Amino acid sequence: MGPLNFFAQVRVFIITGKGGVGKTTVSGVLANLAAREGLRALVVELGTPGVRRQPEVAHLARLFGHELGLDYEQVPLRSGPGDGGVEARALRPDTVLVEYLHLHGMRRLSRRLVTTGAIDVVATAVPGMPDILVLGKVKQMERAAAVGSPGAADVIVLDAPAAGHAVRFLQSPYGLLEAAAGGPVRQQAEEVVQMLSEPTRCQVLLVTTPEDTPVSETIETAAVLEDRTGVKLCGVLVNARFPVLSLPAGMTVAELSALAEVAGARLSPGEQDSLVNAASVRLQRQSSQAAQLARLATELPLPQLELPFCFSAELGLEQLEALTDALGESVEQWVPVGS
Predict the structure, then answer these.
(1) Looking at the domain assignment, is residue 322 inside a domain?
(2) Is residue 264 a part of any domain in this protein?
């Protein structure tokens, strides 16, 4: 499947996984691939109420070579061919609430809430309200994309909370449906639930690394998401897989010396010992990762995408391009569920 067909499946990709598996990086790479295809991609980060320009959401900007924080207004990160490009924004419940009040003719009330500092309290007082405010805004952007509104994104990538919190995040609209008998809150919840339950509008892409604990949590999260939220799982992206090297098992110093001599390298005895140990560790890691991928395929029969491990202390434009190349190749092998 080509990238354009891949992105034609759905308008909103919800990215989640165990903390530390690279959700934000994956969100940026996915958006960059869409931009390469001439699509307008928007990455949505989740912000904390009352905190502006949070350091944690700046990672996405640095991936695209920018040193800036993300706020409510959309920020262009990269242009692509045609109308393609990547923009990003951070959605906080308090700022979404202010916009909602403005749109519904309550500008004076919103100003009073902001000036008194009560906006954070109102936006977070009701359980599930912060989530429905953010998801409601995502729904609004998705509707704009569906009707082709000027400047609307073709692809929306939501960098959702880590796996455990993501379940609660996506369950919130259902809880508000039970709690609210009527009014704008219930209407918003109904519309968000409708978006979440329609696979052509919204799907979840789970992110994991090929290690025991992340794979186990991914399998558990997938089952809970299917049972409790009604969101379709489009697949699993395995991040940070080591490139497979053809190394002989149990390599000896003599064998290494022979290989080094063929390559025209001269190694000291200490270097030889270090490389033999490194080769042994690498083989063990490769074997362990392969076993986890096999377990993942058996226990969670979803299509898999892969991104390689980046041997770099920091990620920037060079790494973004390399990862986007790898994702494009992986997408070419993608077979959707049910095909």
Answers:
(1) yes
(2) no
Q: Are 176 and 41 in contact (CB under 8 A)?
A: no
Residue with tokens 């609307």: 152
Angle, CA 31 vertex, CA 29 and CA 34 arms, to 5°: 110
- Note the helical H segments in 229-268: 253-262
pLDDT bin (cut points 50, 70, 90) of residue 134 is: confident
Collapsing DSSP states into helix, strand and coil, what is residue 234?
strand
Name 78's bridge partners: 86
Measured distance CA(321)–CA(333) in Å, rounded: 19
pLDDT, tens only, 253-308: 777 778 777 888 888 888 888 888 888 888 899 999 999 999 999 999 999 999 99
Q: Give which of 10, 103, 4, 11 is closest to 337, Cα–Cα.
A: 10
Edge-to-edge strands, sheet with 40-46: 75-79, 85-91, 40-46, 155-159, 12-17, 202-208, 232-241, 304-308
In a domain, 80, yes or no: yes
- For the chain, helix, strand, coil in percent to 5 are 55, 15, 30
Interval 191-214: pLDDT, tens: 999 999 999 999 999 999 999 999
* Residue 313 belongs to domain spanning: 3-245+301-332
Q: Tell me how far apart the alpha carbons of residues 213 and 58 are, in angstroms, rounded to a whole number.
A: 27
What's 227's domain CATH number?
A: 3.40.50.300
d(CA 181, CA 184): 10
- Whole-angstrom distance, CA of residue 230 vs CA of residue 224: 10
Residue 248, amino acid: P
| Nearest residue to 303 via CA among 232, 216, 213, 240 | 232
Paired strand residues for 308: 241
In a domain, 263, yes or no: no
